[in-house]
From TrEMBL:
Bilayer disposition of the protein: Multi-pass membrane protein
A GO CC annotation given for this chain: plasma membrane
Similarity comment: Belongs to the CPA3 antiporters (TC 2.A.63) subunit D family.
Name of the protein: Lin2480 protein
Sorted UniProt keywords: Antiport, Cell membrane, Membrane, Transmembrane, Transmembrane helix, Transport
Subcellular location: Cell membrane; Membrane
Cleaved signal peptide residues: none
NADH:quinone oxidoreductase/Mrp antiporter transmembrane domain location: 127-418
Stored PANTHER family: NA(+)_H(+) ANTIPORTER SUBUNIT D1, NADH DEHYDROGENASE
Molecular function terms, GO-annotated: antiporter activity; NADH dehydrogenase (ubiquinone) activity
């Protein structure tokens, strides 16, 4: 039964291989991609309840017991993230049918998406630090294809920058793993945690160096200050469905990697490394706010809002208490869903108006009032207005900050919510209200494009309204983060 933990990796992998055999049959590609993503949703949601009942489940690849072999670990945090990923994947694939265009679909668009999900889910599930590097590379190689597919000049420029940045990041990742292995002598994450604890404070200087290297690598993926410089330009270039995947998933893999390594390996480094994470997170929030309120381009505004969310989550992680970790995990899942929904809404607005800047059009409410109200609800959800999920997540984070004495950080997070609301209300008032300006294309398959948006928004609203029912799952996800022995005992069965 333990092998079912591999389903989030095997299902998209088999789907990608199958679709690569049918590169030019667009309709068949669409149907199979949707079927495989639907199966993935069912499998991952089933796994959530399986882990709820049975606790952390592990698989030793090749039957080599931990810590000698490669171990895949299905704890509640990893499974919740794979389930959220699968739902976003299903919605984005459905949305792509009406937006991405057949020329792109013929160039292995759907296999590339599924291969990217293999890397994303593998990164969440691996219990081996080098294997995390391997899954990162799978994810990144697929993302290069998705970023460049279509071959426009803007995409090619963004791809070169994105490629160079990630090659550098991958090089540092290998260096960090090599340094850690030279000191600890193992790659299994549970075993690394155990052996760092056994050092009893010895060799703390080199452990801190490795911690900063990991922060550099994962911060580069997540868009943490000062490593965010590539994010606005690179994420602006791809088509909207790809942007929804990137914004909803790729930066969150970097966040997950920081959460997993810092709670397992480096939680005791409270003199320098953990406070450094908190400081960088606060600066990321401030710069994200400045970017979000400075632009009138919808894509750019939502991209800078990714940075704000990354800062909020990682600041909460840096506090290292149960309350703050609960808020971070709750808000992480919320942000994945709501960011994907917002990017898909922006795509519909662009399909109707032909522009992403609200300076180029207004009065959209007069022709598509339903779209206006859907955007408004998504804005309230992202800003953290009760009873939506953004409010619950930020409330938990602020409570965690105040209870740990981090008053300035807590107030800053509260203020950031106001600026997030301001940045998106600006889009609503200028683009949807007012006198009709611009030429609107009303021939798009509007209702079909709206289906995945409504699904994601309904999940986001339900996530907030029924948070009491979801809270036990979040608590179970947090247990290994605040008590690494829970994770270690499940992986290394003595």
């Amino acid at each position: 039964m333990n092998n079912i933990i591999l389903m989030p990796i095997l299902i998209p992998f088999l789907g990608a291989i199958t679709l690569m055999l049918l590169p030019k049959r667009v309709i068949v590609q669409r149907v199979f991609a949707l079927i495989f993503s639907g199966i993935l949703v069912v499998a991952t949601l089933g796994l959530v309840f399986y882990i709820r009942e049975n606790g952390i489940t592990t698989v030793n690849i090749g039957n080599w017991s931990a810590p000698f072999g490669i171990t895949m670990v299905g704890d509640m945090l990893a499974i919740l993230l794979t389930a959220t990923t699968s739902i976003i994947l299903f919605c984005v694939i459905f949305y792509s049918f009406y937006t991405i265009g057949k020329p792109r679909e013929k160039f292995l668009y759907y296999p590339a998406i599924l291969f990217m999900i293999v890397g994303v889910n593998g990164s969440f599930l691996t219990g081996d630090i080098f294997n995390m590097f391997v899954f990162f590379e799978v994810m990144l190689m697929a993302s290069y294809v998705l970023l460049v597919i279509g071959g426009t000049q803007v995409q090619l420029k963004a791809t070169i920058k994105y490629l160079l940045i990630n090659v550098v990041g991958s090089g540092f990742f290998v260096v960090a793993i090599a340094l850690l292995y030279s000191m600890i002598g193992t790659l299994n994450m549970a075993d690394i945690s155990q052996k760092i604890t056994d050092l009893n404070g010895a060799n703390t200087g080199m452990i801190s160096v490795v911690a900063v290297l990991f922060l550099f690598v994962f911060g580069l993926k997540a868009g943490l200050f000062p490593l965010y410089f590539w994010l606005p330009g690179s994420y602006f270039a791809p088509p909207i469905p790809v942007l929804a995947l990137f914004g909803g998933l790729l930066t969150k893999v970097g966040v997950y990697a920081i959460i997993r390594t810092y709670t397992l390996f480096f939680s005791s480094l409270t003199d320098f490394v953990v406070p450094l994470l908190g400081i960088l997170a606060i600066v990321t929030i401030i710069l994200g706010v400045i970017g979000a309120i400075s632009y009138y381009d919808m894509k750019t505004i939502v991209i800078y809002n990714i940075m704000i969310a990354i800062g909020v989550i990682l600041f909460s992680v840096s506090i290292m208490t149960r309350e703050s970790m609960t808020g971070a995990v709750f808000y992480l899942i919320h942000d994945m869903i709501i960011k994907a929904a917002l990017f898909l809404i922006v795509g519909i607005v662009m399909a109707i108006t032909g522009y992403s800047s609200v300076k180029k059009f207004s009065g959209l409410m007069s022709v598509k009032p339903s779209l206006g109200w859907i955007f408004f609800i998504a804005t309230l959800g992202l800003s953290g207005i009760p009873p939506l999920s953004g409010f619950i997540g930020k409330l938990l984070i602020v409570e965690g900050a105040f209870s740990a004495g981090q008053i300035v950080g807590g107030i800053l997070i509260l203020l950031s919510s106001l600026f997030v609301l301001m940045s998106l209300i600006k889009v609503f008032t200028r683009g949807f209200w007012g006198e009709k300006k611009g030429v609107f294309n009303l021939q798009i398959p509007y209702k079909k494009m709206l289906v995945p948006v409504v699904i994601l928004l309904a999940i986001s609203i339900g996530y907030g309204v029924f948070s009491n029912a979801i809270y036990p799952f979040i608590e179970q996800a947090v247990d290994p983060l605040v008590d690494p022995s829970v994770y270690i005992d499940a992986v290394i069965k003595e």
